[in-house]
């Protein structure tokens, strides 16, 4: 059996050859097999044969592997890869239980030092010529800013003091433009300082305490066909006009919209309406859950064992890691309620600016499926795709 496992070289191949491509079944078998070796004093065979999968799915000898203590976040492993070392090569797959010595567990701090040095040496140029690197460090930056883990904050304390190292020329230029616009706005309204602006905002807030405020995101507006500021202004002009709505006003609405659409969808203030934050988070979480269990059932993907773990180790809110046919891929998840898919987050577009991704959707009506380029061409009727802005000059 050791020889058969070793011949497969990877977990994916072993699962395909012996478990009808069911990775979970293959992992369960290997766990039972190594437990048998341990209980019957054959543990030395794990030193002789390549039978233990690392976190890339390749079989290794036990002497080549270290324990994953769980201290190192997947985002840290992704960032560490660009220092020239793939830490997952020497880490035992977390779902495999084999008694490696505790002193082989990988420590976070050497990795943090290497990542910090790499970012400092490439400051303001991260991912300049590598889209995957850019995406990884964008997500790593977001992770550092959001985590409350004291160990992470201590290990990366130099980075926390120099977060500007992550900024490239485009980001810096964008921030300079924003600062210039703020200066112009303050000057236009005769505001001489930010303290004065703060006082004016406080006064304005006190004047609208009785007003009901409804927060609506760009994505929620897009669900009913409002995709630009001009279209939003058209709707508001109609809604805020005095008297009855005229035919000319109806003609000013964005294409495909009626006043019934607005009154039923846009103006409804219930917490359960389709444009509340609660509703959007509900359908997004539902889509992620449906896609996760669907992919697990297919047996063609190597993924986290549990849904929460998959979410916690995601690249972003809607972009997730998986392995298929031995290759790391990104799973982009979107709800497809109302027979629409709307891309809102930059990370989604960045993830699909590569070949190793799949777009999966769920419409809450039993239809969980992958969307291909062919699907998009057929449903949109596109027959010509201009490449002028894609081809290098």
Largest sheet: 4 strands, mixed
Question: Which structural class do the helices and strands define?
Answer: alpha+beta
Beta-strand content estimate:
5-15%
Q: Which percent bin holds the helix content? A: 40-55%
Low-confidence stretches: 208-213, 263-275
What does this protein look like?
With 393 residues, this protein is an alpha+beta fold. Among the domains are: 2-107, no CATH class; 225-270, no CATH class; 277-380, 3-Layer(aba) Sandwich (Trna Endonuclease, Chain: A, domain 1), CATH 3.40.1350. It has 19 helices and six strands. Strands 3-4-5-6 form a four-stranded mixed sheet. Strands 1-2 form a two-stranded antiparallel sheet. Strand 3 and strand 4 form a beta hairpin. Helix 2 packs across helix 3 (23-39), helix 5 (74-81) crosses helix 6 and helix 5 packs antiparallel against helix 7. The longest helix has 22 residues, at 277-298. It is globular, with a radius of gyration of 26 Å. The N and C termini lie far apart (56 Å).
């Amino acid at each position: 059996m050791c020889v058969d496992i070793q011949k497969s070289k990877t977990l994916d191949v072993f699962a395909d050859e012996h478990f009808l491509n069911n990775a979970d079944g293959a992992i369960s078998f290997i766990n039972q097999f190594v437990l048998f070796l341990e209980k019957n004093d054959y543990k030395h065979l794990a030193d002789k044969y390549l039978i233990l999968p690392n976190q890339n799915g390749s079989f290794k000898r036990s002497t080549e592997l270290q324990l994953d203590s769980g201290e190192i976040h997947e985002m840290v492993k992704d960032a560490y890869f660009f220092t020239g070392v793939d830490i997952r090569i020497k880490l035992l797959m977390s779902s495999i239980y084999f008694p490696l010595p505790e002193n082989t567990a990988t420590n976070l701090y050497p990795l943090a030092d290497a990542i910090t040095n790499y970012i400092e040496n490439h400051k303001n140029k991260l991912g300049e010529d590598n889209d995957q690197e850019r995406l990884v460090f964008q997500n790593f930056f977001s992770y550092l800013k959001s985590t409350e883990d004291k160990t992470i904050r201590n290990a990366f304390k130099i980075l926390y003091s120099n977060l500007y190292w992550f900024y490239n020329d485009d980001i810096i230029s964008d921030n300079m433009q924003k600062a210039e616009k703020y200066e112009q706005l303050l000057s236009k309204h005769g505001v001489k300082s930010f303290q004065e602006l703060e006082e004016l905002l406080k006064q304005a807030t006190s004047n609208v305490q009785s007003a009901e405020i409804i927060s609506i995101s760009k994505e929620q507006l897009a669900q009913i066909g409002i995709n630009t500021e001009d279209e939003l202004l058209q709707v508001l002009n109609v809604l805020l006009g005095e008297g009855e709505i005229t035919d000319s006003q109806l003609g000013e609405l964005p294409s495909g919209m009626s006043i019934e659409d607005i009154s039923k969808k846009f103006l409804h203030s219930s917490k359960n309406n389709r444009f509340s934050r609660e509703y959007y988070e509900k359908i997004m979480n539902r889509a992620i859950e449906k896609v996760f269990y669907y992919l697990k059932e297919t047996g063609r993907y190597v993924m986290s064992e549990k849904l929460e773990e998959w979410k916690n180790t995601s690249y972003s809110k809607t972009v997730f890691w998986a392995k298929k046919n031995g290759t790391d891929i990104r799973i982009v998840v979107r709800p497809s309620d109302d027979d629409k898919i709307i891309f809102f987050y930059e990370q989604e577009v960045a993830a699909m600016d590569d070949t190793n991704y799949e777009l999966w959707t769920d419409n809450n009506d039993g239809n969980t499926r992958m969307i291909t380029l062919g699907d998009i061409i057929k449903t949109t009727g596109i027959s010509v795709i201009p490449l002028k802005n894609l081809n290098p000059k």
